[in-house]
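Progress report, Aim 2. The chain analyzed during this reporting quarter is listed below.
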Amino acid sequence: MEAAVFQYHKEDDTVDVESFQGEKQKLIQPASLKDPKFEKLKEALVCWINSTLKPDHIVVQSLEEDLYDGLVLHHLLSRLAGVHLSVEDMALTSPAQIRKLGVILEELDKRLSLQDSSQIKWNVKLIHNKDLLATTHLLVAMVRSFQPELGLPPNVKVEVIVLEVSRGGIKSDEQTEVLTEERDAGSDSLNKIEMEDPIDQLMKLDGHKVNMVKKAILHFVNQNMSTMGLEVADMDKQFADGVILLLLLGQLEGFFIPLYDFHLTPVSPSEMLHNVTLALDLLKDAGLQVASVDPQDIVSQDNIATLKVLYALFKKHKGK
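Predicted structure tokens for the chain:
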């Protein structure tokens, strides 16, 4: 599909050359579009977007086709930076999409803290025109800024044709564009080990060791809940409605959650989901990052998701 996009720019005679005078256009070479490293980077970015926007029920399949109207970028900005811009959620016309992208990219450029303007390799026109190179540069910059612990494929480069349009004609040049930097193979392996979630590592061990960790966390939970006259016997089921999780958070972090902010006796899945979502938001506010846990996972009694949340609290407060 990407090759078709390239052919469109190169062969079709529908581009208004006058509108590009004085600009440089970069087109990815067809061979680079099929490079396994580039394919892997695109897959990693799609996976990252879908994981981040899972609570919003947004699924991206193509970096070119799904980001040009600003909807996905707006939701990413909201999720990653807590920024809620006053733009329409669904921009259906081209002018509306361009206006929306202008607002979003202006805010993103501020958040990305790029001191040198030469580092900004995207703009409204490129993103709206479904430019794969510009879109990839933008997403890589967002990952580096908002989630630097995420391991993107290293040393990804693409060959590009640079076209410069002037009144005298079109000049072309071939260049190599760096998308991700090269990393030392040894340190890359170490980073991969360090980035792997401890609970994911735990689940690779034998059942006896897993049970030992579960018992230690359960003991920690009950120690802190005993002052409230509560006891947890089944971690998976008793945390599914979010009530004990919220009370435990308040106890450990030393804050009070008003009763009107959550459902003390939830009777429906939506009320349980509200409680758990609030708990995970409070975890983030407390500086605790829990990898790849969705509120619905807790409500659905996913034992790994529940363990990840409790382990984050256990790790921070076990010495108190």
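The two ends are 56 Å apart (CA to CA). The CA atoms of residues 89 and 115 lie 30 Å apart. These observations will guide the mutagenesis work planned for the next reporting period.
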